[in-house]
Structure formats: structure tokens, C-alpha cells
Amino acid sequence: MGQFQKKKLVIGYSSSFFSSKQFYKRFPIQAALHILLDGALVGVITIVAIMSSVALHSQYLWTKSFTKLETTRDLNLRLWESTSILESYLLKNQQLSRSLVSTKAEDLVYVDSPKPQNTRSLSNETFRTKLLEKISSFPMKSGY
Questions:
Q1: How far is 41 from 49, CA to CA, in rounded Å?
Q2: What is residue 117's three-state secondary structure?
Q3: How buried is 15 (Cβ within 10 angstroms: 0-12 exposed, 13-18 middle, 19+ buried)?
Q4: Residue 2's pLDDT band (boundaries 50, 70, 90)?
Q5: Coil, strand or helix: which one is 68?
Q6: What angle do CA 53, 55, 61 make, to 5 degrees?
């Protein structure tokens, strides 16, 4: 009673039913459908693997860029702090000229804006003079 009986399948039945050639000959539409679905599953698994690797790589690149951004923000903050320290030091130690006078809004003088024609000629003249000054300020090398 404790032993199980083993039944042997008929060799013709087992080999004919599970054989792909026999199955393809007996049911060609179902066999083609199975082949198509197997190919689709392999394709889906491949696409999932590719998309996962692309997502992980883009996440890595984003993390790297965000780390650089944090470093840049930290350096920018340090630069602002050092600039403000230098400005406060310079303002404390700077001696103002005695010719500067504190003023009020009532003491201000308003001047009419110049006409556009005068502005063009003035800007052309100042451009020429600045250009000539810049050219003349270059050091001259002696010799060949």
C-alpha cells in the first residue's frame, strides 16, 4: 500500500502529442500563434531590459549633474559671502572725500534728455576717441 504504482505512457501517444513537428502538422494556426507569442514575449523582455538600463543610466547622469549643481551652489554662496566680507571691510576702511555732500531729493537738478541726432554724433565721437586711445595705449615693441 505504501508504494505508488508507476504507469507508463504509451510511447506513441507521448511522442506524437508533444512533438513540435506533429503539433505543427496537426494544428498549423495554433503552432504559428505559439511561435508568434514566443517571439513577442522575447521582444517584450528585451524592450523591458533595454528601457530599464536606459532609465538607470539616465538616473545616474541626473544624480551626477545634481551633485555638480549642489557643489556650484555651495561655491556661489561662499563667493557671495567672501564678496560681502570684502565690501564691508572696504566700506569701513574707506575715507570719503570731503567734497562729497549728503543731499536730499529737493536739491536734485533734472536735465532734459538730449535729442537723438546729437546723441548719435556724440556717441560716434566718443567711440572714435576711445578707439584711438585704446590703440595708442598698446605697448610698442622695438626692433624687428
A1: 12
A2: helix
A3: exposed
A4: low
A5: helix
A6: 100
